């Protein structure tokens, strides 16, 4: 079924319908254009939102970027940014493939429709003109027929009138004959005009207008098909980005699953671990000692707490404090918690101070020092610390990490300098430059040999500078690592609560010739002397003994011990040692390390296996 056959008489209806179809096409183009603007505004707002919440600092300078939750949030923002990019792609596709193309197609359709309807109107105008001519010839034929009939009647009346002359009768007959001839011509003209009009009308209704209507039908169907394709482009633009949007959503899900609470806790530890040892306990200040003091308390043979010295039946020797140091005098220092000075170190018994009267010194310190509790701020350092090149203003652990980073950077720079300068190392570079210099000297036209001197000098200077910096940072790093290990050992000892070292001093092993047992009880704490001397209070000695020359067994260190005083030796947890002398009852055992060195360690810190 087509319009030319079924709608041959609906010219105005077809005109309104085709106009409505083009208006619908224009409305859809306008809709897509506004939809494109919405998509572009949406993408722009999404990008602005992502930019607002993205970290402002570079990743390497932002410690928060090491946390998985921050990394996941940044990844989520990046996925949202990619999602915004896909919305922009949708807007671009709709703008190009729908708005521009359909708008252009709409203009073409309007021109084609206008042409078809102009052709139809011309055909209608021609048919109407033919009908007017037919009507005109018809009216002429009708008028001529009346005139001829009237002339005939007039001639017949004159012919019967006896009073009429022959001339009048002949004239009337001639007039009647003329009118009849004119009527006959008008009849023939009318007939011809009618035949022509009928032919034109048949052509108009059966051929010309059906063709125009069929063209309009084809145009409208093509417009409808193209509009349906435009409808499909709207969904096609969305479907085109669905896989990438799905990847964005999957990336958001992966970012959500990547949040690791345990890892973030460990990162926080790595970032802010200071490496300091925990503060020791606040010590008890016995202000009642002067009241209980007896005249004999001032003697060096009696402990300051008034308890009698217990002696064993075995051999004894001079008391030595395991943490005393033979160094230059230093002023009294406060304990980590801000209280009076502590004579008990974390991994050893109390060290002796000086031979002066301990109560008098305690009284002086109590007057000059006000005990206070240390805050967390005092433990981690003040805010206004001066930044130093070796990062000594940082806590030990952070100092070690920063030095490690600097060392790695310097090594990379050194390697880069060497790689850029010569593929096979420094010597090859210098040799190559020297050879080039010799070539330039022999053939000056190839180049100026003096131009290579600055390059050789600069290369060697840069490499030497980087080597010195690497050595400098390696030395600083070794020092920082030793400090961290020392603090870590102290903290570990207090954390795992190893047995307290014996209160008595280890035997004197400075000469490795004498040794004895020691069973005296621990003397009371005494403040450091003002002159800084490390003279022990107890100076009783026993008989000498011969040192064994071969180990009598093996032992393993259960805990870490920092042998920082005279006569002691440090050991690491799990270290294998040679047993040189058993515990004589004073809580100390003499051992020998595999790498050399002998000294005393607390017996409770060992697992002993005798031969």
Strand order of the largest sheet: 4-3-2-1-5
Number of helices: 11
- Any idea what the radius of gyration is? 59 Å
Low-pLDDT windows of residues = 293-356, 365-384, 423-427, 509-548
Q: What oligomeric state best describes the polypeptide chains here? A: single chain
Roughly what fraction of the amino acids lie in strands? Answer: under 5%
- Give me the strand/helix succession: HHHHHHHHHHHEEEEE
SS-based class: mainly alpha
Task: Name the average pLDDT.
Answer: 74
Family: Belongs to the FNBP1 family.
Pfam families: FCH, HR1_TOCA, SH3_1
Coiled coil: 124-175, 397-424
Biased composition (Low complexity): 335-346, 506-515
Can I get a quick summary?
By secondary structure, the chain is mainly alpha-helical. It contains 11 helices and 5 strands, in the order αααααααααααβββββ.
How would you portray this structure in words?
GO terms for molecular function: lipid binding. Residues 289-302 have a biased composition (Polar residues). Pfam families: FCH (PF00611), HR1_TOCA (PF25610), SH3_1 (PF00018). Residues 286-358, 487-554 are annotated as: Disordered. Belongs to the FNBP1 family. This protein is mainly alpha-helical and 611 residues long. It has helices spanning 3-6, 11-53, 68-160, 166-257, 261-272, 289-292, 358-368, 376-380, 396-421, 426-442, 452-496, and strands at 553-557, 576-581, 588-593, 598-602, 606-610. Strands 4-3-2-1-5 form a five-stranded antiparallel β-sheet, with no helix packed on it. Helix 3 (68-160) runs antiparallel to helix 4. The N and C termini lie far apart (117 Å). Residues 293-356, 365-384, 423-427 and 509-548 have low confidence and may be disordered.
């Amino acid at each position: 079924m087509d319009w030319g056959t079924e709608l041959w008489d609906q010219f105005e209806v077809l005109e309104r319908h085709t106009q409505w179809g083009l208006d619908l096409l224009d409305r859809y183009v306008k809709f897509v254009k506004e939809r494109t603007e919405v998509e572009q505004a949406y993408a722009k707002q999404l990008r602005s939102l992502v930019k607002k919440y993205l970290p402002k600092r570079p990743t390497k300078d932002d410690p928060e970027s090491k946390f998985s939750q921050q990394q996941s949030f940044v990844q989520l923002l990046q996925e949202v940014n990619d999602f915004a990019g896909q919305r922009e792609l949708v807007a671009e596709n709709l703008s190009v493939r729908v708005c521009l193309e359909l708008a252009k197609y709409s203009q073409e359709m309007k021109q084609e429709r206008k042409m078809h309807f102009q052709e139809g109107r011309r055909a209608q105008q021609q048919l109407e003109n033919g009908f007017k001519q037919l009507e005109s010839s018809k009216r002429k034929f009708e008028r001529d027929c009346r005139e001829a009939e009237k002339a005939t009647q007039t001639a017949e009346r004159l012919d019967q009138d006896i009073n009429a002359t022959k001339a009048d009768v002949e004239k009337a007959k001639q007039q009647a004959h003329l009118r009849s001839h004119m009527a006959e011509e008008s009849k023939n003209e009318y007939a011809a005009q009618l035949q022509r009009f009928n032919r034109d009308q048949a052509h108009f209704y059966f051929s010309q207008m059906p063709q125009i209507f069929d063209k309009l039908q084809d145009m409208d169907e093509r417009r409808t098909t193209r509009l349906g394709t435009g409808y499909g482009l709207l969904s096609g633009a969305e479907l085109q980005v669905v896989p990438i949007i799905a990847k964005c959503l999957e990336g958001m899900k992966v970012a959500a699953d990547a949040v690791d609470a345990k890892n973030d806790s460990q990162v926080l530890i790595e970032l802010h671990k200071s490496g300091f040892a925990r503060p020791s306990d606040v010590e008890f200040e016995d202000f009642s000692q002067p009241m209980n003091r007896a005249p004999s308390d001032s003697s060096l043979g009696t402990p300051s707490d008034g308890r009698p010295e217990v002696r064993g039946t075995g051999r004894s020797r001079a008391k030595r404090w395991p943490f005393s140091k033979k160094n230059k005098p230093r002023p009294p220092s406060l304990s980590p918690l801000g209280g009076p000075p502590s004579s008990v170190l974390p991994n050893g018994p109390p060290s002796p101070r000086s031979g002066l009267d301990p109560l008098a010194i305690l009284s002086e310190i109590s007057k000059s020092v006000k005990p206070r509790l240390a805050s967390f701020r005092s433990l981690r350092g003040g805010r206004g610390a001066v930044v130093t090149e070796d990062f000594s203003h940082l806590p030990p652990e952070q100092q070690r990490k920063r030095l490690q980073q600097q060392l790695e950077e310097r090594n990379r720079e050194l390697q880069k300098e060497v790689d850029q300068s010569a593929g096979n190392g420094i010597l090859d570079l210098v040799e190559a430059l020297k050879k080039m210099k010799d070539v330039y000297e022999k053939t000056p036209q190839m180049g100026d040999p003096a131009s290579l001197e600055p390059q050789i000098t600069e290369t060697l200077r840069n490499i030497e500078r980087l080597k010195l910096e690497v050595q400098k940072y390696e030395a600083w790093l070794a020092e920082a690592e030793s400090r961290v290990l020392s603090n870590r050992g102290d903290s570990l000892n207090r954390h795992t609560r190893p047995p307290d070292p014996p209160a008595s001093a280890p035997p004197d092993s400075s000469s490795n010739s004498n040794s004895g047992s020691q069973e005296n009880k621990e003397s009371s704490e005494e403040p450091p002397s003002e002159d800084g001397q490390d003279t022990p209070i107890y100076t009783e000695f026993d008989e000498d003994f011969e040192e064994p020359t071969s180990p009598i067994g093996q032992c393993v260190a259960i805990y870490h011990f920092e042998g920082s005083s005279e006569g002691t030796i440090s050991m690491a947890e799990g270290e294998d040692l040679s047993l040189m002398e058993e515990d004589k009852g004073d809580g100390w055992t003499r051992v020998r390390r595999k790498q050399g060195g002998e000294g005393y360690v607390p017996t409770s810190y060992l697992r002993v296996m005798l031969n």
